[in-house]
Automatic annotation (TrEMBL):
GO MF terms held by the record: nucleotide binding; oxidoreductase activity
Record bears the keyword Nucleotide-binding: no
Residue ranges constituting the GFO/IDH/MocA-like oxidoreductase domain according to the UniProt record: 137-234
Pfam families: GFO_IDH_MocA, GFO_IDH_MocA_C3
Name by which UniProt lists this protein: Gfo/Idh/MocA family oxidoreductase
Keywords: Oxidoreductase
Gene3D superfamilies reported for this sequence: Dihydrodipicolinate Reductase, domain 2 (3.30.360.10), NAD(P)-binding Rossmann-like Domain (3.40.50.720)
Domain Gfo/Idh/MocA-like oxidoreductase N-terminal: 10-128
InterPro entries: Gfo/Idh/MocA-like_OxRdtase_N (IPR000683), Gfo/Idh/MocA_oxidrdct_glycsds (IPR050463), GFO_IDH_MocA-like_dom (IPR055170), NAD(P)-bd_dom_sf (IPR036291)
């Protein structure tokens, strides 16, 4: 973690105070280099709750925040279709920007955002993604150490009930950055690219939409080919019959033990969630869930399903305690500390980039490359063939 003891705190505002926005509050408060100054949300009830709970100023629009609040940085956690306009507005005001994944609703939007940040001379960081998880960082460090040889394969699998959780309409609309491949694939492809070095070459994929009562891309199988000959697969199924917590010793995505339940109960829950809900009911359920959906520090390692790295002389997989390494010498368990949290790592990277201590790994160009894989996977499924990639960037040397 970076030290900020002798520097003025970076004053930051959050745009969009839903699940993602709220999840960053503990990490902002824990970093001495940041001070949460204001939030933006169109819902009056959300604004009132933020004022009462955190004592910050609250505004209905980003324009109002920029006009009245003294901020140095903006975290854009609003619906994806709004990201381009809000990032351009923040860059135009010379504010550093952290933007939530997926970076944008389209590759053109993402490239415009990156160009705007460059022109303004401000930092643009894309996160949170699960590539910030400590086990993923530790995997990359083992790879960089060279003892296991080159990465040849990365396989990652995640099974959840994503499609049946409370959703706004835009979260299910691919054109607005919705659906599993855009919203959850952005985690998987970030992990894959980080572990394989960044330079993906092509994508072949099949996406699935198999519930007409909840129509959206709800699952995918994606094959990513890399320039150095490595290959990766990403499997995601959000239809809620099987949960990848079963592959992770019962530990859930955020590092807490997940309540055990028989497979029949999971199926029943998914089926019950298919009952029609009005947009108003769905929004209220989503707002209620936002207050509790993503906890802070956890006793176990977070994960995004199970990820296994196959190198020339060994293999690495995540565990709730850290990593397990398999070589000719046998199995080695490598425990990792549960702290700092992934979002604390995001804030540390953001602060270091703002203070020019270190260039960000997850900068705008990296975010564009991740989004390109998301779009290519969807296009590949439609066209039934490989899609070549044009905007990939190599991984920066890790600190």
């Amino acid at each position: 973690m970076s030290s900020a003891a002798h520097e003025p705190a970076v004053r930051i505002g959050i745009v969009g105070f839903g699940t993602a926005g709220r999840a960053f509050v503990p990490a902002i408060h824990a970093h001495r280099g940041f001070a949460l100054t204001a939030i933006v949300d169109p819902a009056e009830t959300v604004r009132r709750a933020a004022v009462d709970e955190f004592g910050v100023a609250a505004y209905e629009s980003l324009e109002a925040l920029l006009e009245h609040a003294d901020v140095d940085a903006i975290y854009v956690a609003s619906p994806t279709a709004l990201h381009r306009a809000q990032v351009l507005l923040a860059c135009g005001a010379r504010k550093h920007v952290l933007v939530e994944k997926p970076m944008a609703a389209s590759l053109d939007d993402a490239r415009a955002m990156t160009a705007a940040a460059y022109a303004a001379g401000v930092v643009l960081l894309v996160g949170h993604s699960h590539s910030y998880d400590a086990p993923v960082h530790a995997m990359r460090e083992l790879i960089d150490g060279g003892e296991l040889g080159r990465v040849r394969m990365v396989n990652t699998w995640c099974f959840t009930d994503w499609i049946y959780r409370p959703r706004r309409a835009d979260e299910l609309d691919t054109q607005q950055g919705g659906g599993v491949t855009m919203r959850q694939g952005s985690h998987q492809f970030d992990i894959i690219r980080l572990l394989c070095g960044g330079l993906a070459r092509s994508v072949r994929a099949r996406t699935f939409d198999w519930d007409p009562e909840r129509s959206a891309i709800g699952a995918h199988t994606v094959f990513v080919d890399f320039a150095d000959g490595a290959a990766a697969t990403a499997i995601y199924n959000g239809y809620g019959h099987f949960f990848s917590t079963e592959l992770c010793e019962g530990v859930g995505e955020w590092g807490f033990m997940s309540p055990g339940r028989p497979a029949a109960d999971a199926s029943t829950q998914a089926a019950g969630a298919r009952r029609p809900r009005t947009p108003e009911e769905e929004l209220l359920a989503k707002q209620a869930r936002a207050k509790h959906a993503i906890p802070g520090d956890a006793p176990h390692q977070p994960h995004f399903g199970l990820t296994i790295v196959s190198c020339e002389r060994g293999e690495i997989r995540q565990s709730p305690q850290g990593l397990i390494v398999y070589t000719d010498a046998g199995r080695t368990d490598l425990p990792l500390p549960a702290s700092p949290s992934p979002r604390a790592r995001v804030m540390a990277e953001f602060h270091d980039a703002i203070c020019q201590r270190a260039a960000a790994v997850h900068d705008g160009h990296w975010g564009v490359a991740n989004l390109e894989v998301c779009e290519a996977a969807i296009a590949s499924s439609i066209r039934g063939r490989d899609v070549e990639l044009k905007h990939q960037v190599a991984l920066r040397a890790q600190r």
